[in-house]
Amino acid sequence: MTETRAKRGRPRAFDRTAALTAATRLFWERGYEATSVGELTEAMGIRPGSLYAAFGDKKSLFKEAVHSYGRSPVGAFMGVALEEEPTAHAAFARILREAAVIYPDPTHPAGCLTISAATNVTSQDAEVETFLRNLRNKNLALFEARLRTAQQAGELSDTASPRALAAYIATVIQGMSQRARDGATAAELTESAELALAAWPAARH
Questions:
Q1: Average pLDDT for 159-176
Q2: Per the confidence metrics, is the pTM higher than 0.85?
């Protein structure tokens, strides 16, 4: 009976993946607060009723968009570098250099969605701000964990602070995202990345 009803149900009249991609791009361009439901449905090519039926409310759609972004090449590059590179220095050098190229890439909105999408939100949308802050802090914790492991392996001197270095790298990345949104080029951001890498502490002797 359940299968019969499912087959007779009205099929969804839109491509959910394409609609989510359109919503992600709009949130990325304008931020959460400045993006209205009307603008979302227009960009997604659906009616408000379809948005609510398929994604829930605007907040739920935004969270799904952020998770989708995090699985995409432009959103997942930091985690990939941490997993693939054999040393912490190689991993963070790759992260900074790839950020310099990815953030100003004209094929998508500038900067990082997770960094920029919830600036200047109202108090009623504090949950969105907290959601993104928690994601950023999770990345910071991953940075610190990788650096602590590197220190134990002798990649960093005993006097180096994994916590401070992780925070420094995260600060540089966030700054590069904003600079990209302000029009900085890949060449300019690469210069910033190389300067940041010059501050890398020495290995244990």
A1: 97
A2: yes
